[in-house]
Give the backbone structure.
Amino acid sequence: MRKNHPPRNKLLCIRIRGIDTMEKSQQISESLPLVILLTLSGGFMDAYSYLCREHVFANAQTGNILLFGVNLSTGNFSSALRYLFPVLAFAFGIAAAEIIRNRFGGTKRFHWRQLVLLAEAIILLAVSLMPQSFNLLANSLASFACGAQVESFRKMNGNGIATTMCIGNLRAATQAICDYGFTKNTTAKENGFLYLGVIGIFVIGAIIGNFCVNMWQEKAIMVSVILLLAGFAFMFINQEN
């Protein structure tokens, strides 16, 4: 007996719909509004950990590694550990994001990146409840959250981006502007100024962080919790539409 096959044009429509869905999901995680929210949070977290938690960086692990080495060379081992543990936690955060991606990458109800944002928010909520005597744990947890974020959100409209640090964005901005100078390619110019804008947003996050730490001390990190939950909701609403 001859089997009934769906018409070829129907199969084509199904494939196109699937591609559109994949592209939409990708655009949501790479969209400018989400990048703004995460970058504000990234700048805020670094200001918070440095100003409120014994001058340790939540994001800038190069600075932590440098200070670890300096304290190690002077025999100040307790201070060296204060910088080492956030670096290790940052690495574990990257690994955790990869575990979430592999474990929940096919989940339909939530995008795996949403789970990362939700986990970040819960971790930072716990940090807000920790007194100064728990600074080592608080900084390690904040760095863990930053590691998960930097691994999960690496693109903006198809271009590589970092929402928790500036060095890569500065390099990309400078390269793009130089490319425009040589080629007059308007896309390169737009990308260059877009990267500079992201750096500016990071700075704004740090400025807000400074004001909030002065007002609320350890509780100030709740601002990052709100920003992350806003990002979670943004992805959820846009996936549903």
